Amino acid sequence: MGVIQTKNLNIGYDHKKGTQVIAEDISVVLESGKLISLLGSNGIGKSTFLKTISGILAPLSGSVFIDDQPIESYSSSILSQKLSLVLTEKLPESSLTVYELIALGRQPYTNWLDQLAPQDISQIENAMVLTDIMHLKNKKYYELSDGQFQKVLIARAIAQDTPIIILDEPSTHLDLYHKVKLFKLLKNLAENTHKCIVFSTHDLDLALQLSNQIILMKRDGLYFDTPDQLIKQGVFDHFFDDETIIFDRNNKQFRIR
What we know:
Elements: E1 4-15, E2 18-26, E3 29-30, E4 35-39, H1 46-53, E5 61-66, E6 69-70, H2 76-82, E7 83-86, H3 98-103, H4 118-130, H5 146-160, E8 164-168, H6 176-193, E9 196-200, H7 204-210, E10 213-218, E11 221-225, H8 227-233, E12 245-248, E13 253-256
Parallel strand pairs: 4-9, 4-10, 7-8, 8-9
Antiparallel strand pairs: 1-2, 1-3, 1-5, 5-6, 10-11, 12-13
C-alpha cells in the first residue's frame, strides 16, 4: 500500500466569488522508496497539489490518505513526524544560524524545553554532511545565496527524518552541477532510506533520467507512471505548445528543432 494515496481528489481554492478548480479526479498511490517528480507548465497546479497532499490546503472534494489514514485525522504534531515539507516561500526575518535553522527540523521529537538530545545532534550533522553545507553551519541564514539557502531548507527536511519528504521546486536556484547532485541525493535518500520523496521541478531532462516515477499535470488531465511508460504513451511529445521544441524519445530529452 502507498504511503500517500489520493482518491477522486479535486484541488483548488474557494473564493467569495465561487470555487476555482485547478485539477480534478486525481487518484494516485505514492510508495516509499520512490523518487517521484511532479511536472507541468507554470500555473497548472503543481504547488496546489503538493500543498493539498501535505495538509496545508483542504481538498475541494475527494480524499488524501497517509499510511491508510485520512490526512485530516492526524494532529499537526503527529503529521510533522510523518511528513516534512520544503516550500519556496521566504522565511520571516530572524538572526538564526544555519545550524539553528536545520535544528528546527527536530522540533517534532524534542522535549518541551526544545533541548537537543545526542540523536537530534546526529541527525542535524548528518543532514549537513549529505547536503554538503557543514562549512556554513555558523553563518546567519540571511547571509546565504539563494542556492545555499535552498540546500539548508532541504537539510532541515532531512534532519526531520520523516518517511515522506515533499519539495516545491527545490532545484530552482541551483546551477546544473548542483542540480544533478541534488537529484542524486534525493534518489539515494528515497532508495537507501526507503522514503517517499515527491518534488516539483522544471528540470524535465533530469527528472526523466533520475525519477522512479513521474506525475505529469497537463490541461487534458493527470498522468502517472514510470518515465519509460510515459514516454511510450507519447505524453511528452506535445508538452510545449511550440513546434520548435520537440521531444526525442530515444534520448529521453527535449531539444530545439
